[in-house]
Amino acid sequence: MPEHRNPSSAHVDAPTESPDSHDHECLRLLSRSPHPYQHRNLDRFSLDGNYPRSATSFPAVSREPTPTSDSGTEADDEHFLKGLPAPRTRAHKGLRGRNELLSGTSTPLPSPALLEEDPRRLSYTPSSLRKDSTPGKDARVLLDSSWRTKRTKEVVRRLTEVVILGSLGAVVQANEHVRPVLSKWRIELYVSLGSMASLVLLYPLRLVVWGYQRRSSSRKLPLSVPSAFDPAPLLYPPAITLLVASLISVDNEAILLPNIVLVLCSLPSSLFPAPFNNEVCNPVHWAISCVPLFLSGPAGLMQKASSSNNANSQQAVVTPETAILFYPLHRYFCQTLHTLTTTSLLPAELQLLSVTLINVLLLSSSPQATILKAMLWVGGLQILVLCSQVVKWGIALARVPKWRFRRAASQSKRNSSFLYTVMSWRRVRHDLFHAPMDTSSCSSCEAFDDPEDSDDIRSAPPKGHRLYKSGTFDGADSTGFEGSQMPGLDVAAQEARVSLAEAKTVFGHFRRHTLPAIENIPKKSHTHTPSGRKKRSASSSVRAFFSMTYEQATTRKWVYAFYIYACIFAAVFLPHKLAGVKEFVQYNALHGYEPVGWALGYLFGDLPWFRMEVLSRNLERWICLPSRLDEDHVEALQLGWVQYLRQVRFGEANTRLVLSAYFLFVIACGLLVVFRLSPIYEVDTRRKVFHFMMVAMFLPSIYIDPTFVGLALSIVLALFLLLDLLRASQLPPLSKPLAYFLAPYVDGRDLRGPVVVSHIFLLIGCAIPLWLSLASLPRTGTGFLEGWEVPTREVSMVSGVVCVGLGDAAASLIGRRYGHRKWLWGGGKSLEGSVAFALAVFAGLVAAQLWLRIGGWSSPGAGPDPWGVTFRKTGVCASMASLTEAVLTGGNDNVIVPVVLWTCVKSLGV
């Protein structure tokens, strides 16, 4: 056990240690243990001066789990924790027991951030300061200065985040297309921003009032806001929601006001007073979120929306009756997402995910967004309702170890016949041979030769109990007594013949195993271990399966798996009253065309033999065939050479087939490279291969057919979520192969909860900028392809691929090998890695701009900017993204940074 000492006692022992030994201790502290499960009993370092110290030579280190990284790059540094179980996130002292996400009504204190704490720097005193130091005083000064320095660095980091988001807002407001839209909704914007600022400024006053009401004469409560609180839920969900909505509202002004309401809904609950004890819905928060709707008036939203939808009448409009229910929808949806993902997502990520899904549900109007809504909301909601309980049963059944199941009956008992049941062999032996009815082993009675006691001896021992040989305590061949020698008895007793009752008195109860019997054997406790420690009791959901055999459990797993697969198939394909995915897509995205026939024509409609088969079999009413373009129509369109090849020479459908084959080829090559590099390179290098695969697939193909790539990314995202559900449910036959395939590529962020988020975040980071660009551009198309063509292209479409595929990979690879200078606030980010990130993003954006001009996609009305202006704008965007990636807290950089880069590129018009 560690000894608790004060600083003075620690410094009394300090002179006995040499500086060399202390430096050796520091080196050993920084080394990685080859036995991660054999930790020493070391307590957490305390900042109040009374810190514990281990009795060993090691300095005191933290017992807290390794702090989870907020970004993907820093999560790569935790690859050595793959074999360890997911660490339990523990709140700071004084805040334990609080729900950091949804509560805030019990106390106005903010939730602590998951910071990159380095307790090793505070757990020991450098030898240079310990030689001529006063015991106790210098330790307190060192601790105070270290804590003050750390606090200053964190404050600088938070202020840098605020400056970045403020600069991004100024860039968006300066856009000539966004400024008129913001001026139309300026009253609602000013009121929402003023409400946010007032709540933040009143927060310290609420802390003072809260501390004054709970003052105590024996202990004073701290009235200052700690510097370790998490600002991400206060900064990123409101800022990103408002900035993205402002840029998309250029095409549909009705999007802005609902997102203003969602901005107020996504504010942390701790900023609002709670008159009632309700952890989910706060009436004060609900009322403040509805203030912009009251200012706009009952018909204001509809009037402004109708005035902005003249160009495209298919855009979705949210009614005031629906917008007023955003707050309870958002709060309960956050609670549902938290239940599903537990600790896999941070609070800011949950808020952003909820706001995004609500926008997809209520404001999606394009065919691609409608298909994504069908897969996430219609199919996902049905699977969640039908399979949630079965998934819980499957997970509980998988948690039961094999040895805890009930043992199956023996083969003889299982295969017993009716004749054996009527007349057993014991009864036959007793009737024919006058044998006793007892089935005890005859070797147990060989030690007793007295005929008077033979009957009692043969019938007394219980079934399965054994007696032991004398002189053998190892139990190797202890099947009976030899002669009259018995362990534990004196010579006189060994010479005498004893009865079975006397032997049981000496030995206690006979045991089934082969260990020798001793006196006073303690009874096996079901609640405590032999050392006296209380056993960890299994949950009721797990104990329900203890009465099953292993074969029955395996059968039950397959039944659960068959039910889940049947529900997935029914939710996607079978028609029913609740409108499955297929019917929803047919009537809301494809204008009534059957999805299977539409997909066949969308991919194979330009093949001559396919068109001939469709026409000869009279299937054109089911399979949609694209029309051919004549030369006069092509000349009027003034297409670029890539569009000319796509629409005239190859055909749009054939181009999609070529792109699909190209995607499969890149994936096959990438997997081959990964498998070849697995025994040579580390995990981080193998993970970055997938980043370069995304660049190779999507950087040249997004401009060719952006709607097809957006549809493919939507389908792959739904497939990833479905496969991860099957993996987490641990049901056969797909769960184990998926887990084995993903295990070599997971990082510390994936070990936080049940969801493996690395590949999902990688896909979302590449897809979100493309989806946002498609939502902000006008649509064209005729016939069954109405709304499936975008006449213009822009660099912001590929900003996610450039940021995630090039910038993040370059920062990780260069920063790991050449990063020696850390940022002011510490952490895993280096200046060299940030410079590599900026240079890679700059090169990727310039390459995208070059491909945009070479391919002939530039808008003919306004020519492209000169290369000097393009380089300046691209440098600003790359620097902004690099600085955001370095300073980001409370969110994954594979999602936040691409959105920031898209906002900057879209606003500056790169």
From TrEMBL:
Compartment list: Endoplasmic reticulum membrane
E.C. numbers: 2.7.1.108
Top class in the EC scheme: transferase
Membrane topology according to the record: Multi-pass membrane protein
Region of interest: Disordered: 1-136
Protein family according to the UniProt entry: Belongs to the polyprenol kinase family.
Protein name listed in UniProt: dolichol kinase
Organism: Pseudomassariella vexata
